[in-house]
Amino acid sequence: MTLHLPTSKTDPFRRGIDIHVFRTNTSTCPVMAMQRYLGIREQAGALSSDHLFITNTGQVVSRHIFLFYLRKALTRAGFESKHYSGHSFRIGAATTAAAQMIESHLIMRLGRWSSDAYRVYIRTPISTLQQAQIAMSVITTNNL
Fold it and tell me: What confidence score (pLDDT) does residue 144 get?
């Protein structure tokens, strides 16, 4: 599936950018989720010329509306919504990619970063820091 953004903050020349989303054949497959959403959207009477993301009343889903419903869903799921923002998705994606040992140039491409700024989004678990420290102490001890 290809989503085309006519403008984006990562597109300084305003040429538009294509985002390629691939089928994962999992329960969280983004392509299957989009197909379900488009079916519901069509049943609700949305036109193909309407914005992609609209509320059930036909209102465009702005950043403000998205964050409102995100926080509402997080609260219902038992999370403290104050700990989440729009950047949480970038943080989560960069952290997950790094944990899966995805190469830095691919993380940059996936997140549409043109520099290594993505590194500030990566959250390293304490357990990973502990393992690194233990590994370093073994190497140091063996070299003495």
Answer: 59
Pairing of strands 2-5, 17-20: antiparallel
**Quick one: residue 29, left, alpha or beta (phi over 0 = left, psi -120 to 50 = alpha)?**
beta
Token pair 């959207």 is found at 41
pLDDT at 33: 96
> Residue 36: exposed, middle, or buried by beta-carbon count in 10 A (0-12, 13-18, 19+)?
exposed
In the structure, what pLDDT confidence band is assigned to residue 139 with cuts at 50, 70 and 90? low
DSSP 8-state code for residue 50 = S
Q: Residue 104: name the closest of 128, 121, 126 by CA.
A: 121
Whole-angstrom distance, CA of residue 141 vs CA of residue 116: 34
What is the average per-residue pLDDT within 139-144? 58
Which of 21, 40, 27 is CA-nearest to residue 93?
21
pLDDT at residue 108 is higher than 60:
yes
Residue 5, token pair as written in the block: 């953004």
The C-alpha atoms of residue 121 and residue 108 are separated, in whole angstroms, by 12
Given a contact cutoff of 8 angstroms between Cβ atoms, the answer to whether 104 and 77 are in contact is: no
Q: What CA–CA distance (Å, rounded) separates 107 from 101?
A: 10
